[in-house]
Every structure is written in structure tokens, then in C-alpha cells.
């Protein structure tokens, strides 16, 4: 079963929270981060992307960057911008986007759960990205950004959250992207104990929704500390890391689409003709076509939208990976027709998160930068969990979660 512990969170002053809360480190590059922190000395990007306070030519993996993260975080704490709660708590973090609200339970997940496979993954991680986030944790001795987990719905947890949010939130603001962020504290000892026991006895697994590299980094640093501590007991704070855990039914995965630079030497007519062996191809005209269901794709080519519906026999319903639309597109189009063999390394393909809308696909093609675009129907949370349960890994760029968690609402110290 799962570990979820309360902890003494470090939190920002209420009057500064909207200035502090920032987008996650991995959704903007250094140049964008420098622009975003202009005029805002409190932005948490000074901690998560500390190169913003260093010369432009600094290597973002240089130790000077990680030392700057430590310096900036310690300054926020020493100046009282962040303070520590006086007893272990759970927290509720809710987000509102497009009129829809999701409620996550904030706690400290177990390093041993990651090592033992109780925390289930669906993506591969890259060692260089792991090492970057590990260094951030090593130098600061904090989990500065939460990871985004899902867990199977549980009625008692849902009831606890429902009761907790009946009072006014301690933080309540709308970010510049229009997403609302709301935050409550659960510090009643009997309720804290009940939450801990429910996870320990009744939640068999949790699933990484977003933040595979942060999860790996937090767990690996915790494991390092365990190995280096001859007096290790298992109760030290480094045995746990910051997570926001959402009931799976509340989460929505949005589409993750593809654009390709060329047709591998074919004319548009030849390409469409070849598609017809695996798909029912229907011309839809000038208006954007959004896929209606699984195994139905939108395609934008030479100013027109098409509907592509995979024919029976082109995928295997009994294989949780083969049945995914990203796999069907790869096996029937990208690989055999367009000669794109490695989605991770090919420079002829790019990926567009559905948050940008399908008009972004039109824009990329109409500009001449790309030749063809494919719109995909999003995978479901059930598909994600089935794949993670089976021990399989999803193909690259399959899931896109929105809204993203803001960083800086609560921090977890590895030391106390």
C-alpha cells in the first residue's frame, strides 16, 4: 500500500502568494524565465530557475546555479517571506480552469514507494534531466516543486477534502493565465491520522501524472541520504518528498498533437492515397476538425482538414500500448510512410500540446515551417493507469495535463 505523510510545510506570506507562485521550471526556458521575473523579486522562479539572477552565458548545470538556488531560497526564509508550519499537516490544493475545479491532497510521498514500484510510472526519464533536478534538491535540501500524482478514487478521502474546503482558503488567487489557485490546511490531528491510515491500508498504488524527472530526483536523493547515514531510521524527512495527489476521476488529459516537416518525398495526393490502406479518409474542408473518439484523427494538409479513422485490424485491442492512438499513428503513418523511426531524436517531427489549440497546428503548417499536422484524441486516465499497472511505458509525448501546478505554495524540507 501507499505512503502519504503529513509534514511541516514552508509556506509564503498570504499577501505575497500571488507574486511568489510561479509556473513549473520545465514549462519555460531561461530566456522566458528572465522576462517573467522582471520587476518581481519574489517570484519563485528565482529558486527554481536561478540562472535568471546570473550572467546570460552561465551554464544552467554549473554548480554556481544550484548554489544560487540555495542562496535565494534561504534569503526568502530568513526574511520571513516563507515560514514553517509548527506541526505536521496535510494540505488541499485546488485549481480552477475553464469553470472546472480539481482538488489535490498535498502530502509527503515515500521514497521507498518509488523504489518498490508502488509509485507507478508511465514515461521514461533522461539521466541528464534527473541529475539536474537531483542537484537542485541536493544543494537546497528542499523539494521546492511538487510532483503531480493520481490515485484511485476513495470515498473517505473525497469526504475529508469536501469538509476541509468548506472554510475560506488560506490562499486564493487567479494567476495571469486565468487559472484559479486555492489552498487549505488540514491540521486536525485525528483527520491527519485518518488520511495517513487510509493511504497505508487502502490505496494500493499512486500514479505519476506529471513530473517524472522531479519524482525520480526526489526519490534518488532521499535514497542517497539513506545510504550515507549510518544512523538511518526511516523516519527522517529525506525519506519523503512533496506531492499533490488527485483522485483519478477529477483529472483530464488533453491531446498531444504532432506536426511533420515533409511528406518523405511524396505529393499530397500520393500520401492520402497511401493513408487509405489503413484509414477511412474523409475530406472535412476548411474548418478545424477535432477528433471525435479514440482511433479517429484530424489531419491538416495543404489548407484542408481531413478525418482519418483507423480501420479494423490496424491495431491490437488486447495490447495496452498498441491500442493507443499515438502508437497507431506511429505504426501506420509516421514510420512506414514518413520514415520517422525515432520520435525522441528525429528533427522532422515536433509535438504541440493541446492547450495551444488546433489553430496552432494550422499556423505551423500554413507558415511553411511544417507540411502536415495530426490532431489526436486524448488518452484517458484509465489507459494511463492500465499501462502503468502492466509495467509498460507510454510512447513519447502522449499525455498533457492542464492546469499545471504552481510552484512556491508549499515546500518540503529534507532536514526537518
Secondary-structure topology with pairs:
Blueprint: E1 4-5, E2 10-12, H1 17-20, H2 30-36, H3 45-48, H4 63-78, E3 82-84, E4 90-97, E5 100-110, H5 111-116, E6 119-120, H6 127-140, E7 142-143, E8 147-151, H7 155-164, E9 171-174, E10 180-186, H8 189-202, E11 206-210, H9 212-228, E12 240-247, E13 253-254, E14 256-260, H10 268-275, E15 279-285, E16 296-301, E17 304-310, H11 325-334, E18 349-353, H12 359-366, E19 372-375, H13 381-389, E20 400-401, E21 412-413
Helix pairs in contact: 4-6, 6-9
| Number of discrete helical segments | 13
Major sheet description: 9 strands, mixed
* Coarse morphology: globular
- What is the count of structural domains? 2
What is the CA-CA span between the terminal residues? 25 Å
Structural class: alpha+beta
Oligomeric state of shown chains: single chain
Low-confidence stretches: none
Mean residue pLDDT = 95
Strand content: 15-25%
Rg, rounded, reads 23 Å
Relative helix content: 25-40%
Strand segment count: 21
Q: What can you tell me about this protein's structure?
A:
The structure is a single chain. The chain has helices at 17-20, 30-36, 45-48, 63-78, 111-116, 127-140, 155-164, 189-202, 212-228, 268-275, 325-334, 359-366, 381-389, and strands at residues 4-5, 10-12, 82-84, 90-97, 100-110, 119-120, 142-143, 147-151, 171-174, 180-186, 206-210, 240-247, 253-254, 256-260, 279-285, 296-301, 304-310, 349-353, 372-375, 400-401, 412-413. It has 13 helices and 21 strands. The mean pLDDT is 95. It has 2 domains: 4-252 and 402-413, no CATH class; 256-377, Conserved hypothetical protein from pyrococcus furiosus pfu- 392566-001, domain 2 (2-Layer Sandwich). The protein is an alpha+beta fold and 416 residues long. The relative contact order is 0.17. Helix 4 (63-78) packs parallel to helix 6.
Amino acid at each position: 500500500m501507499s505512503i502519504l505523510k503529513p509534514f511541516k510545510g514552508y509556506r509564503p506570506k498570504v499577501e505575497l502568494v500571488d507574486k511568489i507562485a510561479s509556473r513549473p521550471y520545465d514549462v519555460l526556458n531561461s530566456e522566458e524565465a528572465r522576462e517573467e521575473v522582471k520587476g518581481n523579486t519574489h517570484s519563485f522562479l528565482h529558486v527554481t530557475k536561478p540562472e535568471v539572477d546570473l550572467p546570460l552565458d552561465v551554464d544552467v548545470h554549473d554548480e554556481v546555479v544550484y548554489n544560487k538556488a540555495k542562496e535565494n531560497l534561504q534569503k526568502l526564509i530568513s526574511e520571513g517571506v516563507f515560514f514553517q508550519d509548527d506541526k505536521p499537516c496535510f494540505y488541499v490544493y485546488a485549481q480552477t480552469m475553464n469553470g472546472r475545479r480539481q482538488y489535490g491532497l498535498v502530502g509527503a510521498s515515500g521514497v521507498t514507494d518509488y523504489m518498490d514500484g508502488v509509485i507507478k510510472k508511465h514515461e521514461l526519464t533522461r539521466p541528464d534531466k534527473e541529475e539536474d533536478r537531483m542537484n537542485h534538491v541536493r544543494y537546497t535540501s528542499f523539494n521546492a516543486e511538487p510532483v503531480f500524482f493520481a490515485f484511485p478514487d476513495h470515498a473517505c478521502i473525497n469526504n475529508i477534502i469536501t469538509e476541509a474546503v468548506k472554510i475560506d482558503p488560506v490562499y486564493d488567487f487567479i494567476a495571469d493565465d486565468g487559472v484559479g489557485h486555492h489552498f487549505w490546511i488540514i491540521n486536525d490531528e485525528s483527520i491527519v491520522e485518518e488520511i495517513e491510515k487510509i493511504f497505508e491500508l487502502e490505496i494500493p498504488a499512486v500514479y505519476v501524472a506529471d513530473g517524472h524527472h522531479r519524482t525520480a530526483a526526489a526519490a534518488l536523493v532521499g535514497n542517497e541520504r539513506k545510504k550515507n547515514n549510518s544512523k538511518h531510521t526511516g523516519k527522517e524527512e529525506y525519506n519523503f518528498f512533496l506531492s499533490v495527489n488527485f483522485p483519478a476521476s477529477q483529472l483530464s488529459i488533453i491531446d498531444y498533437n504532432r506536426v511533420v516537416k515533409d511528406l518523405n518525398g511524396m505529393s499530397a495526393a500520393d500520401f492520402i492515397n497511401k493513408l487509405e490502406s489503413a484509414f477511412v479518409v474523409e475530406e472535412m474542408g476548411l474548418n478545424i476538425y477535432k477528433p471525435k473518439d479514440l482511433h479517429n484523427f484530424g489531419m491538416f494538409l495543404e489548407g484542408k482538414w481531413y478525418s482519418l479513422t483507423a480501420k479494423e485490424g490496424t491495431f491490437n485491442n488486447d495490447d495496452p500500448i498498441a491500442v493507443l492512438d499515438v502508437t497507431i499513428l506511429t505504426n501506420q503513418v509516421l514510420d512506414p510512410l514518413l520514415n520517422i523511426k525515432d520520435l525522441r531524436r528525429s528533427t522532422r517531427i515536433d509535438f504541440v500540446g493541446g492547450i495551444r489549440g488546433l489553430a496552432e497546428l494550422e499556423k505551423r503548417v500554413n507558415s511553411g515551417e511544417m507540411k502536415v499536422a495530426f490532431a489526436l484524441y486524448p488518452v484517458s486516465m484509465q489507459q494511463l493507469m492500465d499501462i502503468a499497472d502492466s509495467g509498460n511505458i507510454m510512447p513519447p509525448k502522449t499525455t498533457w495535463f492542464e492546469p499545471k501546478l504552481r510552484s512556491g505554495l508549499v515546500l518540503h524540507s529534507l532536514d526537518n
